[in-house]
Amino acid sequence: MTTLLRHGWMLLPLLAIACGGGGGPGGMDIVYVTDQGVADVADEGGIPDSGIRDTGGRDTNVQGRWFEIILLHDTASYQDVSAGSTFRINAKVIDYDKMAPAVGVFVEYEIAEVTALQGNPLDDGDGMLAGTEIPTDGNGFVQNVFRANNRTDVIYRVVLSLPYEKADEKDLLIRVLSAPCGCATVKLSYDGALDPSVLHDIEVSVLPADFGCDKLFPERPVPDAVFQERTISNLYGQQSFECLPSDMYMTMFARAKGPKIMVDGKPVECVVASGCNDGVFLQPEVCKEVTLKVYQANLNPAGRYDCVDHFNFTNLVKQCAGGDTTIMNCVTSGSSGDLGKTVCCVLAEMIKFFQTPGYTIIESIADLAKIWLGSLIVDTVINLFKDAVATIITNWLLNNSPAWVQDFFTVGDDMLGAITNLEMLSDLVIAKLNNDYTVQGTQYWTGVALYWKFGCKPGDPGYETCGRHELNMKDVNDPNFPLDILEGKFTAMVSNWNQFVINQHAVKLNYGKLVLYVINELVVASITGGQAHSLKEAAQLWINCKAIASGILGQIASWFGGTRQQIEDVCVGSVDFLFGFVDVFLGALTLDTELSLSGTGTLIDETCDLRVDRIINGKYLGYVQGNSSQASITGTFQAVKQK
Asked: What is the DSSP secondary-structure string of 114-129?
């Protein structure tokens, strides 16, 4: 009493006297114009957020000061609520030493006691508080939220306290009363592109109206304050909910799981569709039929990924004109401007040379001889002895030449693999999903990797990565580098929930320069131990024209009416001409070309948060475009989101 008298002038503006006994009618809130609280804010689960925030550190200079908690309710009676509803506990704290509202003082809340209406103590109830420790605002105002769940006919004693000596606790009694039951039978409908037959285990939850549809998300857990929950096996089933709270609005929320996807050998099932209705009203003793519409969820691919593309140019290499070819024929076909035929013609001759070098040499000698003797004479003579002589030359080169030369003639398939298989590395950036389910993508190229498997042994643990040669984009100024751009752009669409469809777009890749780089810098340089960096230099190292003229082709001189010296000269000339031309020819392939690509892939959400974690099963289909022709290619890709 002394306290009240001493500070009565301070309390008069804050207190209002309410009549009624302890068991009287429902409580009456005391409304303060300046204490309006804050609007509800979405929460990720549990009790709706009522603006309760930890606004900063505690006021540490409070010991020995005198505070008082003033409940802004009629504490002479119970605060009555119904099952599933919420009650806002409003209070104000006064700092008497400062003669002002206490700012930033933490108020502690506790459900201290639960009893039945008859007064019998209970071990526990299902009511809960939004927070246990909340600071006052700039006006000394503080608010907490109590939620009454399904248990009825109970009384909760909520205690508010301050952790200071000169501050008394305050009690508030909240009574949860039963109400007549309502009933609902829930059916489902569906709107979405995803095949409805893959939707299953559809979880339907009934929640208080405080949880509006704008606060519920398919990728987040359903809040704990659920009245009832049922599972419908598919879109064509239904479930009944008995004894739901009536005479009040509530929210019905459905989440449907989608197809099972294997990720790293483990099955992943995520929520792929959801539906919500926050305007469901049930009458007492009436069973209402509710149709809940389920919509396909949107998978968001936005982010930055580590991307690896693999391209297969085998079809391009196979695009020869057909029939027997020689290097001289390739010269002619090269002039047509048909990139695919030109490239593959030279590659075919290179591979044939590695496998049967005798034929390449004898054909080249014959082609040169025709210049002096005419085609009819040379063809007549050569056709009689071509196979035998070519076999002799091949055997000599394979068996009597230096070991590194013999190695050279075993690399045909390896060289073909290095030329026809390309790995491209990039940072893939995908923008946010548009309303029409399209996205913009940009690939920032970081490197190119080539695989030269010569010397790698199948079956070894590291065989997959053996012979991998990576060219970093920092070397882009290297004139032999096969990429001419730093980035590529495309548009794509997300369809059928997780299918990624990439529209046709161009990537600037100089395939001829790539072929030249592989032959000169990988094949020739590695086989010769760095002694040669072109086929002409390599040929000059290993082909002994003097030995060929004097030993193997001694009698060839008579075919052309010449001497062995002339044959040696022809041999030297043919080697220089043949491989010199190849160098020039491959260099000419550095004309501008580009890949034109479209593709598909599967978006994977590993954590079921509707955000893409990786793209798998990526496939490309496209072509290499030259000046006047194109050749088809295929490819694959995969991408993993960067952490």
From this structure: EEETTS-B-S--S-EE
Residue 633: pLDDT band with limits 50, 70, 90: confident
- Residues 340, 349: Cα–Cα separation, whole Å: 14
Domain chopping of the chain, boundaries: 2-177, 181-296, 303-311+425-509+594-641, 314-417+516-588
In angstroms, the CA 58 to CA 56 distance is 7
CA-to-CA distance for 363 and 385, rounded, in angstroms? Answer: 12
DSSP state of 300: B
* pLDDT digit string, tens, across residues 141-152: 999 999 988 788
Which class is domain 303-311+425-509+594-641? mainly beta
Instruction: Confirm whether pTM is higher than 0.70.
Output: no
Whole-angstrom Cα distance, residue 243 to residue 178? 11
State the pLDDT confidence band at 496, using cuts at 50, 70 and 90.
confident
Pairing between β-strand 170-177 and β-strand 79-82 as defined by DSSP bridges = parallel
- The answer to whether residues 136 and 101 touch, using CB atoms and an 8 Å cutoff, is yes
Amino acid (one-letter) located at 27: G
Q: How many CB atoms lie within 10 A of CB 393?
A: 22
> Distance (Å, rounded) from C-alpha 362 to C-alpha 197?
68
Token pair of 300 as six digits: 């968001």
Q: Which of 165, 159, 177 is nearest to 245 (CA)?
A: 177
Inter-CA distances, 490 with 444, 493, 505, 506, 507, Å: 12, 10, 6, 8, 10
Q: What is the DSSP string of 304-337?
A: EEEEEEEEE-HHHHT---SS---HHHHHHHHTTT
Q: Are 73 and 54 in contact, with CB atoms under 8 Å apart?
A: no
Residues contacting 323, CB < 8 A, separation 6+: none
- Which are the contacts of 332, defined by CB distance < 8 A and separation ≥ 6? none
Does the fold of domain 181-296 match that of domain 2-177? yes
Summarize the chain as % helix, strand, coil (round to 5): 25, 35, 40
Q: What is the pLDDT of residue 612?
A: 95
**Residue 625 vs residue 504, higher pLDDT:** 504
Q: Which residue has the higher pLDDT, 624 or 348?
A: 624
Most confident segment among 509-523, 583-597, 607-621: 607-621
Work out the mean pLDDT of the chain and round it to a whole number.
76
For 427, the token pair is 């940072």
pLDDT over 80 at 417, yes or no? no
Task: Give the residue among 531, 535, 530 at the shortest CA–CA distance from 519.
Answer: 535
pLDDT value for 181? 82
CATH topology of domain 181-296: Immunoglobulin-like (2.60.40)
Cβ proximity of 334 and 342 under 8 Å: yes
Find out whether 184 and 244 touch, Cβ atoms under 8 Å. Answer: yes
Give the chain's largest Cα–Cα span: 139
Structure tokens at 224: 């704990």
Q: How many CA atoms lie within 13 A of 26 on its CB side?
A: 8
DSSP 3-state of 348: helix
Contact in structure between 37 and 134 (CB atoms under 8 Å): no
- What is the dihedral angle through the alpha carbons of 45, 51, 56, 60, rounded to the nearest 10 degrees? -110
Confidence class for position 260, pLDDT limits 50, 70, 90: confident
Q: What is the rounded CA–CA span in Å between residue 570 and residue 551?
A: 15
Q: Which CATH number is 2-177 given?
A: 2.60.40.10
